[in-house]
Amino acid sequence: MTFNDTDNSSTLEYPLNEVACKIAGEIVFSDNVGKAMRIWRMRFGISQTELALHMGISPSLISDYESGRRKSPGATMIRKFVRALIEIDRLRGMPVLSRMLKCEYHYLNSQNPIIEHEEYVEPLSAEEFCKAIGAKVVTIEEVKGKRILGYTVADSLKFLLESPPYIRAKLYGLTNERAIIFTNVNDSGALLIALKFSIEELGGLRPSLVVLHGIRGISELGLLLAKKEYLPLAIVEAVTLRELLSRLRLTRSCLSKVERRGIVSTETND
User: Fold this and answer.
1) If you average pLDDT over every residue of the chain, what do you get?
2) Would 268 be classed as within a structural domain?
3) So what's the pLDDT on residue 7?
4) For 262, how many CA atoms within 13 A lie in the half-sphere containing its CB?
5) Is 70 exceeded by the pLDDT of residue 133?
6) Residue 54, Cβ neighbours under 10 Å: how many?
7) Residue 110: pLDDT band by 50, 70, 90 thresholds?
8) Residue 104 sits in the same domain as residue 147
9) Are residues 16 and 124 located together in one domain of the fold?
10) Which of 89, 108, 127 is at the close of a domain?
11) What pLDDT, on a 0 to 100 scale, did the predictor assign at position 226?
12) Helix residue ranges per DSSP H, the chain
């Protein structure tokens, strides 16, 4: 997700775009979207009238959304709402944003499970991808016919214990037709339960392939969950993270050049 428009005059620079994504994510994943909108507006100390004026809409429309009299707003309205909160706070000297950046944003990397993120310009079949990285396919039928347009490498413990919904959504990058590789997996059952809930949070969005790194086999619970959720699943056994990343980068030699985007440092201790 990005809050940057095609008009460069109205872009939100990094890290404010990340803050905007966080706010929007909490609103979207809230059980009561209108209430979440009201909470964020009040956190910024902005009246309905001032916010409506900045957005170019009537105050009654904001009131209707916040009270639940009108059905939940769409993505465009939420985007405008969040941008308006940030832009008004910037005009005031960033009293709220500066606190958020100090108190929350510095913890972003500690919460972020993503180690590396890559988009391909041409697809690989799931079978070709698994062969290239030395992965053993576990759910053979589910893998057949799947194509891979990118991959995300994620730390399994951070995914399980620390990452909020708006961070987990970033696992999918530009498309869900990708492989998500979880590193240093100890308990396949617990991880796949967490992934199941994450899929439900994202409206059923699921990856083309899930690869578990660092285990010799899948637990009975993990296999049951994978088949029940129709998850294409594979494992990579005893290789270091450094070696796994090297193999993943070599998948690019099977294709025209791809765009590589490192999200966090890939320096690791073997």
Assistant:
1) 81
2) no
3) 38
4) 6
5) yes
6) 17
7) low
8) no
9) no
10) 108
11) 85
12) 16-28, 33-43, 48-55, 59-67, 75-91, 95-103, 108-111, 126-133, 140-143, 156-161, 165-168, 188-201, 220-228, 241-250
Instruction: Please give the residue range of the domain that contains residue 51.
Output: 8-108
The pLDDT-based confidence of 266 (bands split at 50, 70, 90) is very low
Residue 252 has pLDDT above 90, yes or no: no
Residue 225 Cα to chain centre, angstroms: 22
Q: How far is CA 91 from the centre of its chain?
A: 30
- Using DSSP bridges, classify how beta strands 147-155 and 114-125 pair: parallel, antiparallel or unpaired: antiparallel
CA distance 85 to 41: 7
Can you tell me the distance from the alpha carbon of 64 to that of 52, in angstroms, rounded to the nearest whole number? 12
- Give the per-residue pLDDT at 201: 77
Q: Are 90 and 98 in contact (CB under 8 A)?
A: no
Residue 188 has pLDDT above 90, yes or no: no
Cβ atoms of 142 and 232 within 8 Å: the answer is: yes
Nearest to 163 by CA among 134, 191, 204, 123: 191
Q: Write out the two tokens for 153.
A: 């490498």
129 and 228 in one domain?
A: yes
pLDDT value, residue 218: 84
Q: Are 244 and 211 in contact (CB under 8 A)?
A: no
Distance CA 81, CA 105 (A): 20
- Tell me which of 92, 108, 124 is where a domain ends: 108
Global pTM? 0.56
pLDDT digits (tens, 9 = 90+) for 24-41: 988 988 889 999 999 999
Give the C-alpha separation, 199 to 229, whole Å. 10
Quick check: 263 and 123 in contact, CB under 8 A?
Answer: no
How many Å is the Cα radius of gyration of the chain? 21
**Single-letter amino acid code for the residue at 117:** H
